[in-house]
Amino acid sequence: MTSRTVLGLFIPLALVAATSWAATTPSPSIPAVQRLEPQTSKLVPQGAAVQVLASGFRWSEGPVWIAKGDYLLFSDVPANRIYRWTSAGGAALFLHPSGGTASSGFREAGSNGLKPGGPGAILLADQGNRAIAVLDLRTKAKRLLSTRYNGRKFNSPNDLAVARDGSVWFTDPPYGLEGLDSSPLKEQSVNGVYRRSPDGSVRLVEDRLSFPNGIAFSPDGRTLYVSNSDPAQAVILAFDVAANGTVSRRRVFADMGALAASGLPGLPDGMAVDEHGNLWATGPGGVHILAPDGRRLGLISTGAAVSNCTFGGADGRTLFMTSSDKLAAIRTRVRGAPHRSPRFAR
Question: N or C: which end of the chain has fewer CB atoms below 10 A?
Answer without folding.
Answer: C
